[in-house]
Amino acid sequence: MEDELVKQITRVLPALIMTCLLTKAGSLTAAEEPTRTIEVHAKRYGFTPSEITVKPGETVTIHLVSDDVTHSLLIPELKINQEVSKGHPVDVKLAPNSTGDFRGKCGRFCGSGHGSMTFTVHVKE
Question: Alpha-carbon distance 92 to 31, whole Å?
Answer without folding.
Answer: 14
